[in-house]
């Protein structure tokens, strides 16, 4: 039986086509994910309100399950398609989604479910959705013979797995194969040598963080069989919101662990930093703070700070407002028409640098406003994190403030 860490390793395999990759994931997931009636995995995209399934794999079900599922998808009206494939969530049951919407309040009244699914002993579906880009992604769905509820531990575990499937899918789009060329760092487990090639990772604290994450990832393999949730907590989705860890074999057959650049790339028509865009986008897609921290390899406190900063710049109040705006603001293909009243609240605020700061302090303040950490700023300025911290303390003293949040608010022109 495959354990969850083995499934995650499989998510980062870059060889073969997408159908083969999906088939391997579904076969490895099924023993732990499905609940006796079978599961399906497929790639999807939404086009003009219709869900179009692409690669499709069934496992441990009955003959005819794929035809049933394809017919259900074909018959989905735009409202149901939007709720299941565009509304914000990561892992929910169809009955949970239905209870939140009057059109679908009781699945037993859904004629398609009655005619197509109920007669095959399928009453509900668990849906683990992995967004690849706007209006497309991967779905892993468990067929249930009763109305399903998701236990908190099960939800937490498979949300972590989904974070790695998403990262693996991004890498497959970026790379044809996994090798040492272009790696930001290379770890040789035989010699315990860590060769760091990316300048921003060469700072002492970053080097130690990377070593500890490599060690934690190896420990996750040992814990996965009997303590899967604890194991998954050790291997976060990204390193510092930018890099993925994966194993490769060199041409001589030796195994290495490498770091490859693999950020969540989000276009935005609003002036947010990269990290603010990532956090706001994932929260806007319905991911809770703890999950976003796991996906990006950040601390929950950093996620909350970035989220507050992004929401201040977007001039939205609360997550509900962010969720309403995120699909229009992020992934936009061009300027948003001013007549789009849902976006009239947006404020692309410039950075207001106060007088009285030195040139170095102004540069540090601007980079804090852009969402960079002290370590990132130090790497860009070719100095130490301690120097940046001292400069920040001087900025706080001059402005009469005490935190990054207050500094960002001041630079945004917000006096609250």
From TrEMBL:
One of its GO terms (molecular function) is DNA binding. It holds the Pfam family GerE. Keywords: DNA-binding, Transcription, Transcription regulation. GO terms for biological process: regulation of DNA-templated transcription. InterPro entries: Sig_transdc_resp-reg_C-effctor, Tscrpt_reg_LuxR_C, WH-like_DNA-bd_sf. Gene3D superfamilies: Winged helix-like DNA-binding domain superfamily/Winged helix DNA-binding domain. CDD domains: LuxR_C_like. SUPFAM superfamilies: C-terminal effector domain of the bipartite response regulators. PANTHER family: DNA-BINDING TRANSCRIPTIONAL ACTIVATOR DEVR_DOSR. This is Uncharacterized protein. It comes from Bradymonas sediminis.
């Amino acid at each position: 039986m495959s354990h969850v860490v083995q499934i995650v390793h499989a998510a980062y395999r870059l060889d073969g086509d997408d159908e083969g990759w999906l088939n391997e994931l579904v076969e490895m997931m099924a023993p732990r994910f499905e609940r006796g009636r079978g599961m399906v995995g497929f790639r999807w995209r939404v086009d003009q309100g219709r869900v179009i399934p692409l690669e499709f794999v069934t496992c441990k079900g009955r003959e005819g399950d794929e035809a049933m599922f394809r017919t259900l998808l074909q018959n989905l009206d735009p409202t149901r398609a939007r709720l299941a494939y565009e509304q914000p969530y990561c892992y929910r049951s169809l009955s949970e989604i239905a209870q939140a919407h009057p059109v679908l309040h009781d699945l037993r009244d859904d004629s398609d479910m009655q005619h197509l699914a109920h007669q095959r002993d399928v009453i509900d579906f668990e849906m683990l959705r992995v967004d690849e880009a706007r209006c497309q992604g991967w779905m892993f769905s468990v067929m249930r013979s009763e109305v399903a509820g998701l236990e908190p531990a099960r939800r937490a575990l498979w949300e972590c797995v989904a974070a790695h499937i998403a990262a693996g899918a991004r890498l497959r789009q970026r790379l044809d194969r996994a090798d040492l060329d272009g790696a930001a760092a290379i770890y040789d487990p035989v010699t315990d040598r860590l060769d760091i090639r990316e300048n921003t990772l060469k700072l002492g604290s970053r080097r130690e963080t990377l070593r500890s994450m490599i060690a934690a990832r190896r420990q996750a393999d040992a814990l996965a069989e009997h303590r899967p949730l604890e194991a998954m907590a050790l291997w976060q989705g990204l390193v510092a919101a930018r890099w993925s860890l994966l194993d490769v074999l060199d041409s001589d057959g030796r195994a290495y662990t490498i770091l490859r650049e693999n950020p969540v790339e989000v276009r935005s028509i609003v002036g947010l930093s990269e990290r603010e865009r990532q956090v706001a986008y994932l929260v806007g897609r319905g991911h809770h703070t703890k999950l976003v921290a796991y996906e990006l390899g950040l601390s929950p406190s950093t996620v909350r700070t970035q989220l507050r900063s992004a929401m201040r710049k977007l001039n939205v109040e609360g997550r509900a407002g962010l969720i309403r705006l995120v699909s229009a603001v992020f992934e936009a293909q061009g300027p948003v028409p001013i007549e789009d009243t849902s976006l009239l609240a947006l404020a692309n605020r410039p950075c207001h640098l106060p007088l009285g700061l030195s040139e170095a302090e102004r540069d540090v303040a601007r980079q804090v406003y852009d969402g960079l950490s002290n370590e990132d700023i130090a790497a860009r300025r070719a100095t130490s994190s301690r120097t940046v911290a001292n400069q920040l303390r001087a900025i706080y003293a001059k402005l009469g403030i005490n935190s990054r949040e207050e500094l960002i608010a001041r630079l945004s022109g917000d006096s609250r």
